[in-house]
Every structure is written in structure tokens, then in C-alpha cells.
Amino acid sequence: MRVIGLIGGMSWESTAEYYRVANELVRERRGGYRSARIVLTSVDFADVERLQATGDWAAAGELLAAEARRLEAAGADLVVLCTNTMHKVADAVAAAVDVPFLHLADTTAAAVQGAGVRRVGLLGTRFTMEQAFYRDRLAEHGLEVLVPDQAGREVVHRVIYDELVHGVVRAESREAYAAVMSELVERGAEGIVLGCTEIELLVGAEDTTVPVFPTTRLHVEAAVAAALGE
């Protein structure tokens, strides 16, 4: 089994999901006492959030590239960045190591295409929804991407940073997200990409009428498949 390297802490709430799901999947597929071989580096999210807020993406890329090198030195055979938003600096992270870097948007796009969906609604932080780095990566796979209107984007972003990254899950926020997803479906979305790793703590397939693509689980599934040589 190859060693999965996880760059986490953005936030640790979602990183815990990466660790849990990876081990569950290995146990399901290999049985017995089997568990995933993982090395994990977890950054202080306050440092990353400050760089996000000031728009210093170059420094953020350097910070995460250093963590990727740390994982490779610790024996990682592949690197996984446990956050959608920070895939804005994915090129810097991938270039820092000689082992494969598993891009979250690519694993998501593969699942969307596999479901026969071409037009998706995207939920995430305002960086992910409003900037081109993520939408363009999905578009490279032939997908059309819709994002919420400004009011919807503000709601989605606020809930992530004020609630979900702190482990707070509220019923009223779930209802607000359901309304945003409904609006995207009305505009023609054939599926919804949960493009922030924390969003899966709040909503799922039961909250909308179209297929949901949970990026955290899809990313972990791809990492485990690579680790097991599937």
C-alpha cells in the first residue's frame, strides 16, 4: 500500500473527515485490521486565513509547498491538499515535490462526467466561487459551471467561515444552503458540486433534487484507489 500524504488544517474539521473516510475505505476494500497508510501535516488555519484575506497567494503557495516537501521527506508516495480554496496555489504545491499530486478538481470532474452531468452549480468559499482557478479547471473537463448570485455567495461563504470551520452546524444554515441550491437548479444546474470540504458537514444528497458531488469524499476515494493501485 502506498503512503498518502495529507496537507490539512484548513480547517481541521474537514481534515478529520479525510482521515476518517480514508481509513474506512481501506477497511472496506481490504478487510480485517487493514487501515490506510497516512502521513499528515496540519497547518495553523489562522496563518492561511490571514494570507487569504490579504490576497497574498504567493506566500500561501510557499507555505503549502513547504508542507508538501515535508510530507515527501516523511515517506509520502502521493500528496493530497485537503482544501478546495487553496487549490488556487495547487501548481506551487505540485511543483515542490517529485511524487504525484492529486488535484481535487480533477477527481471531482471525473465523477461529474461519470454521472453524465455537464452543467453544475458550485458552492464554496467566495474565493472558489468568484475566482477563475477552480471554475476554469472544471471547464477544462468540458463542464459548464454556475455559481450563486451575490446574495447567495455571501450566505455560503459566511456559513463556512463563521460556522462550519468552527464545527458549528445549524439547521437554519442547512435551509439557507438548500434554498441556494434550489436557485441553481432553477437556472439549469444538473448537479451540485460541494466545493468546500466543510460543506459536507452541513448538506448532502437529501437537500436537493439533483445529484450532489461531495468533493471531500471523491478526493479521498481517488487517493485510496491510487494508494491501493486500483
From TrEMBL:
Taxonomically, which superkingdom?
Answer: Bacteria
Instruction: Supply the name of the protein.
Output: Aspartate/glutamate racemase family protein
Cite a single GO MF annotation.
amino-acid racemase activity
* Source organism of this protein record: Nocardioides zeae
* Signal sequence, start to end: none
InterPro entries, alphabetically? Asp/Glu/hydantoin_racemase, Asp/Glu_race, Asp/Glu_racemase_AS_1, Asp_race
- For whether the record's keyword set contains Isomerase, the answer is yes
Q: Which Pfam families match?
A: Asp_Glu_race
The family classification in the record reads: Belongs to the aspartate/glutamate racemases family.
Q: Which UniProt keywords apply?
A: Isomerase
